[in-house]
């Protein structure tokens, strides 16, 4: 009972896909346009007008809109909208007005397939690609046989994998990517530090492989089982639908038949023993009403064999800043007037190193005492071969009936983008809240099938 | 392909018709694409119906799909012509290719034309028994489509029995779609008033569902979990068993699966007798709930609204997780607002310090609405946690010193509640508040400050002077401020009769003679009579000790809360309102039947109330497909917004009031009448004249009749939270 449509930012309906029931008439589109698109003050992603509810998700300059007149499952509707976007991305590479306009026939076909009578059906892009293609399918008798296979697979218990996958070289890549979220108060107290981890897998394995996956020996997944000490503790984890949840629940083993190609095997969250790769100490002083001086020190907090790369530190300045005089020992710092920040870029910082930025911002006198939001200092960075949570991959075993040899690679990356924030210490009240963001590099591990020992490789794979 | 969307040319349809009849295959297909493109942008291409139909019989699957798409769009307007397509459809359901069979049966179900339905039954019968699971799962949903159009056909053909058998199908997706279809039919049947239970879930079915649960797709899991939530377990053991099987789903990557699993557990937990087991289950719920916050903002918001509900039932589940609800700088406002509410809910004397420093930060941000809510949250924390009240007051004082107008005003409003909760504790703050007297321009802030002055008139030396300012401008003030001034002056007079006789005389005179609000006049008369007949009684009434206020633990009634918990994560649980309030009758509106039943009366009452409350904002339950022209006023469409912004509507929405009159009265700022019987019982002749809308956080128990001195906030724009708190 939901129908989906996409609209451009200007409110033009590019496409309305209907699940056969609720046809959104032009009047309905107008209402949505007036209430959401041209309303600068939309304060909820769901809007109910009369008895019709509009769910919307914005992507680039498009709105993906789901409409219902029922007491629909709100979480499902949004998950479905995001799934629609990811399917479209996997088909067209990008989701924008042009892609939608150029592929409207295909999108109709897709919507018709992934949702029926308002109920989502098969939404695995990989399987969909086997029978919804950009080339025309001719319904010959050979095709009929082929279709039988496809349909059985699309509805089977491993709907995410085709049965006939073949590779010359059987390989699996595992990327452990951790995003560190930090919110630090001006006084240096950690308000919030946690890790959002993703284990991304690219499986290029023939046949129907059965995989078993092992993490740290000292891994605690339920808080109540906590032993304390140095064990890696995960607050919660979530798995791709291929993982057998009942088995995980009973014996804590992660076993699955992977989809072909890239997928997100696992997501996890950790809030204990989070190692912060970068420490930032910032002091901001207002000197009269015409100057603000900054001292920002960044210290790397990991082994000196590793290094943080692509470090970008954004230091907010007042809105009436005219120029900033920057002094840095490493990297480049530049005032970006459009964003009211000083952007300090450092291509690489070694472990154990400390670098400092000092600068003075000159302010114009202004009659308009516009309130400054005092955003926090924000740091982006990447650290390869490092995990903030301490999580490591112990083994990945692949079993297949042909018993082939497979090569497995592991890589670790800890990064931050947009959520590593440090509020600077401001002398007078009017400054406050600036985030710092940090980002990090990568590492590789090769796991041999025979021995669950880990080899570490630097550089490319 | 972009050329398909070129602007219309003269006689385009004529050209298209020619191309559709072309002898070349490619040209025909190209023409169909252009027809669909025109249809998409809203041009009328229904005239090409016969020409398009000719292209239906083809080996090209893509072309077939396009023609079907066209048919779906126009079948309703051209039912006679659709008959011509029936043969091809029926033939296609026998095609060797399962994709074609499924496509045909899927499309036939979507052609909402009366005439074609009769031809649907035979092929459907066949497809339900198809060898191919893909066809079966499509056919299962088709039964639900058929029921929606002509329920009697489904029953006559025995499709329901067939569906019930299909629950045991070997293919998980077929099971999931069968469950979906049965649930859908069940809902439709209940809505239509069919007494027979269409989908009774038995123990046997539950076991089958639990087996299928681990094998089917994420969407199928949602369907199965939704069905499981309907089941009433026979005993505690069975409930435990179901929970045990459902809990692994907490680890699923799809938020709707997680939330649906939580719903099942929340429902089954009621039947579990062992305290330990239910505690363990509640504890297991916390981590997945927190993880939901790493989703995209829209999903986060849905999760937060549901967490808010869950906390009303089990306030303890997230008490250790305060920090994850801290607002991120770049969260959308709707997420921030929900987080604020949840943080106050899980605040305890142990975690209040980080909360307060966080709230103080928020109160210095730029978004006015968010700042106000943050300040309000500080006030709620103060009222909720006695030990933290002093720290809250200090934070508020810091904020007042910032002298940002809206910050000061909101802080004053909040201070009033703190004074109400902790009388005679923070008098030291009063000078600071009064110093900002000139900055106040919002009625609510003014009214709050006046209430504070009146309350502490005895201790403020120049109270008469301060109140004099408001008495001088009495007629220019808004009604809430007038009412408050009136009460405060009377309080002042009762406490310091010597110095304020002239003032009280003046205010009573102005209020009874020059004021055009009947409420203000009436209250002035009552005071006048009270004061002139029996000053002792006046003291007893005006200076009575007020019952303490508390933060309501729930925003909805207990019965509604239970109902809503069963609807996680449906729209109802997101809105915290029962489904009837926002869902029209008939799922697609088009076939809504006008029935005379109490619900209608209620809806009518609601309609009337909204008109009264919202003035020009006329409510209309707009039906997009049926009657778009009846109301083109976009400003009047925001029915839900209107609903939440009036006390009366909130009353109706929370499902607690049966008498529309209650609501009419409450719109005008009076106390709800349910307290009326209590007043005469107290032997107070004034009981009937309730002026006192309870202050922000007053509990339902507040006998507001006897509290003319209670702060007045009769304007209907009160935030929803507070309104719901009244019930």
List keywords for this structure.
heterodimer, A: 461 residues, alpha+beta, Beta-Lactamase, Immunoglobulin-like, twelve-stranded mixed sheet, five-stranded antiparallel sheet, 7 helices, 30 strands, 17% helix, 43% strand, globular, disordered C terminus, B: 727 residues, mainly alpha, 61% helix, 0% strand, elongated
Q: Which structural class do the helices and strands of chain B define?
A: mainly alpha
Q: Give the integer mean of the pLDDT values of chain B.
A: 78
CATH superfamily of the largest domain in chain A: Mu homology domain, subdomain B
Strand fraction of chain B equals under 5%
- The domain count of chain A comes to 3
Q: List the total number of helices of chain A.
A: 7
Oligomerization status of the protein chains = heterodimer
Structural class of chain A: alpha+beta
Q: Can you count the helices of chain B?
A: 37
Backbone shape of chain A: globular
What is the annotated CATH architecture of the largest domain in chain A?
A: Sandwich
Name the CATH class of the largest domain in chain A. Mainly Beta
Tell how many strands the DSSP assignment of chain B holds: 0
Could you give the count of β-strands of chain A?
A: 30
Q: Report the end-to-end length of chain B measured between terminal Cα atoms.
A: 59 Å
Low-pLDDT residue spans of chain A: 7-23, 428-461
Family (chain A): Belongs to the adaptor complexes medium subunit family.
Protein name (chain A): AP-2 complex subunit mu
Pfam family, one (chain A): Clat_adaptor_s
Main location (chain A): membrane
